[in-house]
Specification:
Helix content: 55-70%
Bound molecules: shikimate-3-phosphate
Number of helices: 9
Radius of gyration: 16 Å
Oligomer: single chain
CATH topology: Rossmann fold
Number of domains: 1
Strand content: 5-15%
Structural class: alpha/beta
CATH architecture: 3-Layer(aba) Sandwich
Order of helices and strands: EHEHHHEHEHHHEH
CATH superfamily: P-loop containing nucleotide triphosphate hydrolases
Number of strands: 5
Length: about 180
């Protein structure tokens, strides 16, 4: 049984959504995908919201949703998968740190730019901060990921109370490690 909420963070394509799904299955716990919640609230795809309303608008909605979701999880523990940019906002970092101090686990799925870029390229056109203008080559994707990740690295690490290095792990191994560590 899941005794506390597990919040997955990490860069785009770090495996948050898939790992969250497997954790929810293992624990028979509710699954909350913050990006999915936003798509429902906004009634639009994230890429389209970025294009029509801009990133600032998206971040405001993301902060509101995170706040609401964390409140819900005080009553019923859940598995939460966040969007890769959630740590870019100070208010979100504060909420994540408070959640961790209150006993929830904030788990950073860490991966190298090479691993992330390869996975991003498998799912083209869905990451507005990587290739909103045009499809990038793998090499250009690695460079773009490096720049963004460097700017976010400290935030991912400072918000997390558990860090899992996922480069050499299968999804099942990541899940196993989380279950062992988050006991
Ligand atoms: C973003 C990551 C995306 C999504 C949005 C912004 C980011 O989520 O929230 O495109 O800034 O890293 P995933 O991490 O699920 O791709």
């Amino acid at each position: 049984m899941l005794s506390t909420t597990l919040i997955l963070t990490g860069f785009m394509a770090s495996g948050k959504s898939r790992v969250a799904r497997l954790l929810a299955e293992q624990y028979h716990a509710p699954l909350i995908d913050l990006d999915q919640r936003l798509v429902e609230i906004l009634g639009d795809s994230i890429s389209h919201v970025f294009r029509t309303h801009g990133e600032k608008y998206f971040r405001e909605k993301e902060t509101q949703s995170l706040q609401q979701v964390l409140q819900e999880c005080h009553a019923v523990p859940a598995i939460i998968s966040t969007g890769g940019g959630v740590v870019t906002e100070r208010a979100n970092r504060a909420m994540l740190k408070t959640a961790s101090e209150e006993g929830m686990h904030v788990i950073y799925l860490r991966a190298s730019p090479q691993t992330l870029a390869k996975r991003i390229r498998r799912d083209p056109g869905t990451r507005p901060l990587i290739d909103a203008e045009k499809m990038l080559s793998l090499e250009d994707t690695v460079e773009r990921v490096k720049v963004l990740l460097e700017g976010r690295r400290a935030s991912y690490e400072s918000c997390a109370d558990i860090i899992i290095d996922t480069d050499c792990l299968s999804l099942a191994e990541v899940v196993e490690k989380i279950i062992d560590t988050a006991k």
